[in-house]
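hi! just following up on the protien thing from before. the input was this:
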Amino acid sequence: MPEQKKKKAVCLLSGGLDSSTCLAYARREGYECYALSFDYGQRHRIELEAAARVAADLGAVQHLVAPAPLRLFGGSALTAEIEVPKGRSGEAMAAGIPVTYVPARNTIFLAFALAWAEVLGAEDIFIGVNAVDYSGYPDCRPEYIEAFERMANLATRAGVEGRMRLRIHAPLLRLTKADIVRLGRELGVNFALTHSCYDPGPGGKPCGACDSCVLRRKGFQEAGLEDPLDTA
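and the predicted 3d structure came back as:
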């Protein structure tokens, strides 16, 4: 019998811990992975460099970096001259939506992924959102992912014609950061290639104090593993 062709999947990839683990998960599930990153006017390009390293290391078939200039609108500490919060407690992080939230970011990113998936004939899109240690972002919630999937099948030619049933996979959605670290290790993610910091110093050194650094350190500590990027 001829070898069955692998299914294709578009995987959103920021170069961070979560999206890298999500890409590795999709690969383990047998997908040909097409990695998609964004130059959206973020504070630094270090995460794009990390995404390129991770995509190559995990064997993505193709890695695209799409322009999505969200800096035009600002409104976030990641896309405007707004100070990145540092040294916040877990309680403070859980108290509301932080200034590092980028308005409509995941909606825009998933829309791009949807367009590429339709062109590729890929029914599956993977995104590494997390609703447990997610720092309060509204576009990381399960109801958001479910709503976008419904919309995707209403808004595409492939969905309307019944040629494809588009699915948004969020395999990390209900995992703690420690669970994600353990899963990443199991899947062979090279954590040294990743980048999580919102406000890195010279040479890309993590600040160690922003929400993302704090959550990452918490995850590695609770998983009982050493983070190769830890600055503590």
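The beta strands are 8-12, 32-39, 62-67, 124-126, 167-169.
The first helix runs from residue 17 to 28.
cheers
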